[in-house]
């Protein structure tokens, strides 16, 4: 039998049971899930990556050359 454990909701920090009983896991609710999605859509959150910055700079320079 697998152990069930709790994780904190990334938005409100409420304990969320990591199991089938929590359909929005790791979020505690649909509301917190949508808040997180909105933050990503508004570009308030991002995953840092040097190669993405480098690729974007190269594309900008190529565009200027035309």
Structural description of this entry:
There is one protein chain. The chain is mainly α. The protein contains 2 helices and 2 strands; from the N terminus they run E-E-H-H. It has helices spanning about 30-40, 50-65, and strands spanning about 5-10, 15. The protein has a two-stranded antiparallel ribbon. A hairpin with a 6-residue loop joins strand 1 and strand 2. The longest helix has 16 residues, at about 50-65. The chain is globular, with a radius of gyration of 19 Å. The N and C termini lie far apart (about 65 Å). The model has no long low-confidence stretch (mean pLDDT about 85).
Describe what is shown at a glance.
This protein has helices at 30-41, 50-65; strands at 6-8, 15-17.
Tally of helical runs: 2
Classify the helix fraction into a percent range.
Answer: 40-55%
CA gyration radius, whole angstroms: 19 Å
Biggest pleated-sheet summary: 2 strands, antiparallel
Q: Taking strands numbered 1, 2, ... along the chain, how are they ordered across the largest sheet?
A: 1-2
How many strands in all? 2
| Uncertain stretches | none
Intertermini distance: 63 Å
Q: Helix- and strand-based class?
A: mainly alpha
Using the alpha-carbon principal axes, give the shape: globular
Cofactor: Zn(2+)
Organism: Pasteurella oralis
Subunit structure: Interacts with GyrB.
Protein name: DNA gyrase inhibitor YacG
Quickly list its features.
66 residues; Znf_NHR/GATA; DNA_gyrase_inhibitor_YacG; globular; zinc; mainly alpha; two-stranded antiparallel sheet; metal-binding; DNA gyrase inhibitor YacG
């Amino acid at each position: 039998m697998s152990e069930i454990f709790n994780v904190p909701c990334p938005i409100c920090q409420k304990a969320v049971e990591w199991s089938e009983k929590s359909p929005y896991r790791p979020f505690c609710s649909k509301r917190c899930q949508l808040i997180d999605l909105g933050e990503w859509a508004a570009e308030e959150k991002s995953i840092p990556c040097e190669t993405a910055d480098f690729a974007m700079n190269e594309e900008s320079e190529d565009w200027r050359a035309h």
